[in-house]
From TrEMBL:
Gene3D superfamilies: 3.30.300.30, N-terminal domain of ligase-like (3.40.50.12780)
Residues covered by the AMP-binding enzyme C-terminal domain: 427-504
Family note: Belongs to the ATP-dependent AMP-binding enzyme family.
Domain of life: Bacteria
Signal peptide span: none
AMP-dependent synthetase/ligase domain: residues covered: 13-377
Name of the featured protein: AMP-binding protein
One MF annotation (Gene Ontology) recorded for this entry: acid-thiol ligase activity
Pfam families: AMP-binding (PF00501), AMP-binding_C (PF13193)
Keyword entries, A-Z: Ligase
Organism: Ideonella aquatica
Length: 516
């Protein structure tokens, strides 16, 4: 049987080759490759000892921390499937994911267990499957450190094949409910190798992971550096601190980090004397992604990071990396997301009938990659919609210019990107539509200087009802994560809501400044 190294195999390899090398660090602790390997093996054996079996799903809920690296490696060693959950979600949102994934265990940071406790009775997790890490042990939870300390340090004997699932990455969609994208060990390893090849990373790199560890961005980049035997530093602050980020880049001698435009804007907007305190000359490569970046932002990045090369990527949880705008193309090809990654296969832009559109015309973007996802968990209909043979799409619309550069034009799902987080209007509309005073609702993204886009709701009320913006925003707080909640609301009459001849709301018209 062919065998492609899993994340656990990569950690084990470097535990043999460079056992004392720094592998992972956050603000609280650090792990060498040997220490990481032992703790991952102990975690794997502990979970198997609780009765979990290969293929079972384990939900993970935590802020950024070194534990994420232990969890991903430990679950891989045991053949268990990671279900990372965004720490910004509310209790009902968390409950849906755990239920849908049929998770048999839930590992959470002590500070976040209060999100789980109110919905425990609804979850499929057995009573002994709730595990917490952190300085305090909440009532009704098992000790993560206690389990690891009591487990065997030897590698488990579970046979994990390349095609076995390694993670269910939940991503929202047009249905209003998150979908679990199935990522295999093989896909995770291939994207890591493609990233190392294209961006010329080595074992001497030190990466700073700022994006949430529950997101595909940090997952894919962390795998890259682990396979190389490099070092990952994890930014575990609860909120983004631009000066603290600069200080970390300097102190840890970081060579690479991946950020969204909002992060760069906040960091480069600091007073010159503040930026001058921190030597970032070691930074060699920078990634910008998740939202369009303006020319002035890119020029400011290149001016401050004099030794750094800037890359911009387009991709998705499902397809992985799809296009890359390389350092020499940043200004000349402004507005483009680049061309295919090395080893990523090819891109097709198709019309509604599945025919390729000519250069310059808009079509739905399909990619064929070696590391594409394996479909949506328990959702064959949406899986079938995502594929045309080996070609995968998440519904983004784009055009290709005469030189082969891809320009994103619109999101088929009207997705909003606010501060690097994906917000799907249909999901927000589903929640707001449950308010008894609301007759109809449309959610769109509007431009925002800091976050790129802000969530804006356009509301039609039932006749005879009254509702203020403040009342609606307050009603939203316990029902959805903060980044999904509308930042502004506009109340309109039914006649003012723009629609097609068939009654469908024209979100495009609601995004104009006049409509907002």
């Amino acid at each position: 049987m062919n065998h492609l190294l899993t994340l656990a195999d990569a950690v084990a390899t470097h535990a043999r080759l460079t056992p004392h090398k720094l592998a992972v660090r956050d603000s609280r602790r650090s792990l060498s490759y040997a220490q990481w390997h032992e703790r991952a093996c102990r975690l794997a054996n502990a979970l198997l000892g609780l009765g979990l079996a290969k293929g079972d799903r384990v939900a993970l809920l935590a802020y950024n921390s070194a534990e994420w690296m232990e969890l991903y490696a430990g679950l891989a060693a045991a053949g268990l499937v990671a279900v990372p959950i965004n720490f910004r979600l509310t209790a009902p949102e968390i409950a849906y994911i755990v239920q849908h994934a049929e998770a048999r265990a839930l590992i959470a940071q002590d500070e976040l267990t209060d999100r789980v406790d109110p919905v425990r009775a609804e979850l499929p997790v057995p009573a002994d499957g709730y595990i917490a890490f952190g300085p305090t042990l909440p009532a009704g939870w098992r000790s993560y450190e206690g389990l690891i300390g009591a487990a065997r340090p030897a590698a488990p004997t579970v046979a994990v094949a390349p095609g076995d699932p390694s993670a269910l990455m939940y991503t929202s969609g047009t249905t209003g409910k998150p979908k679990g994208a199935i990522r295999s060990h093989e896909g995770s390893t291939l994207i890591a190798l493609a990233t190392a090849l294209e961006m010329r990373f080595t074992r001497d790199d030190t990466a700073l992971l700022v994006m949430p560890m529950c997101h595909a961005n940090s997952l894919y980049f962390s795998h890259t550096f682990v396979h190389l035997g490099a070092t990952c530093v994890i930014d575990d602050r609860r909120s983004f601190d631009p000066e603290a980020l600069l200080a970390t880049l300097a102190r840890e001698r970081i060579t690479f980090t991946s950020l969204v435009p909002t992060h760069y804007i906040m960091m480069l907007g600091l007073p010159p004397e503040v930026k001058a305190r921190h030597d970032v000359s070691r930074v060699e490569k920078l990634m910008i992604s998740s939202a369009p970046a303006r020319k002035d932002t890119k020029l400011a990045i290149l001016d401050h990071f004099r030794n750094g090369q800037l890359y911009e990527l387009y991709g998705s949880t499902e397809a992985g990396w799809v296009t890359l705008l390389r350092p020499e193309e940043q200004i000349d090809r402004l507005g483009s997301v680049g061309r295919e990654w090395a080893g990523s296969g090819a891109i097709r832009l198709l019309d509604a009938d599945g025919h390729e559109v000519p250069d310059g015309e808009v079509g739905e973007l399909f990619s064929r990659t070696a590391y594409v996802f394996d479909g949506y968990w328990k959702n064959p209909e949406k899986t079938a919609e995502a594929f045309r043979g080996p070609w995968c799409s998440v519904g983004d619309m784009a055009r290709r210019d005469a030189d082969g550069y891809i320009h994103l034009v619109d999101r088929k799902s009207n997705m909003i990107i606010s501060g690097g987080e994906n917000v799907y209007p249909s999901e927000v509309e589903s929640v707001l539509g449950a308010h008894p005073a609301i007759k109809d609702i449309a959610v769109v993204g509007v431009p925002h200087d800091k976050w790129g886009e802000a969530v804006h709701a356009v509301v039609v009320l039932h006749q005879g009802t009254a509702l203020t913006e403040a009342e609606l925003l307050d009603w939203c707080r316990p029902r959805m994560a903060g980044y999904k909640r509308p930042q502004s609301v506009r109340f309109v009459s039914e006649e003012q809501m723009p629609r097609t001849a068939t009654g469908k709301i024209l979100h495009r018209l609601l995004r104009t400044p006049q409509a907002a």
